[in-house]
Amino acid sequence: xxxxxTGVQTCALPISDxxxxxxxQHRAIVEAIRAGKADQARDLAIGHLxxxxxxxIRMSPVLADEIVDWR
Length: 71
Prior knowledge:
- With about 70 residues, the protein is an all-alpha fold.
- It has helices at about 15-35, 40-60, 60-65.
- Helix 1 runs antiparallel to helix 2 and helix 2 packs across helix 3.
- The chain is elongated and about 40 Å long.
């Protein structure tokens, strides 16, 4: 096991790498907003939310069903 991966982590990335990725995504969204690029900011935010949703589903399908009413 990788020394940087915790016992509860369910993805392949060490937590620090995942946080860095999320931080970079947030920076890109903020930069697009500051530059007045609303369409780009929207697209980045939607992609980010889809990725977070996919992580929740992978980590806990039952939790995802409780959060989202798929009907």
